[in-house]
Amino acid sequence: MEIQPTFMQSPGQPEHEEDDGLAVETGKPELQPPARYQVIMLNDDYTPMDFVVEVLETFFMLNREKATQIMLRVHTEGRAVCGVYSRDVAETKAAQVNEYARECQHPLMCQIERDA
């Protein structure tokens, strides 16, 4: 039976740590800003343009001129970005618009996409 030698530890130093006199700097984690999401309004052939402008003013806090520009882009291009937000805010705004449109019996829809 072999007897293993025991070493004296410094007080407060755990057994598994060895101090070889090396200075080690802990690196800071690389933080990235949270992803941003676009709220995109989709065109349909039934929702009145005035209703779309109202939705943009109400839910996206746009002035009449900007809301009209976005409404025309939705109408001519089939879709347009209403705003860019954090994921939670974008999901909430899209859901609010979709619910409000259903309550008013319009097929208007918004969806979210990750911003590039």
What does this structure look like?
The chain is of the alpha+beta class and 116 residues long. It has a domain at 47-114: 2-Layer Sandwich (Ribosomal Protein L30, Chain: A). It is 37% helix and 18% strand. It has 3 helices and 3 strands. The protein has a 3-stranded antiparallel β-sheet. The N and C termini lie far apart (67 Å). The model has no long low-confidence stretch (mean pLDDT 88). Residues 1-12 have a biased composition (Polar residues).
Outline:
By secondary structure, the protein is an alpha+beta fold. The protein has 3 helices and 3 strands, in the order E-H-H-E-H-E.
Question: What would the keywords be for this entry?
Answer:
18% strand; 116 residues; single chain; Ribosomal Protein L30, Chain: A; 37% helix
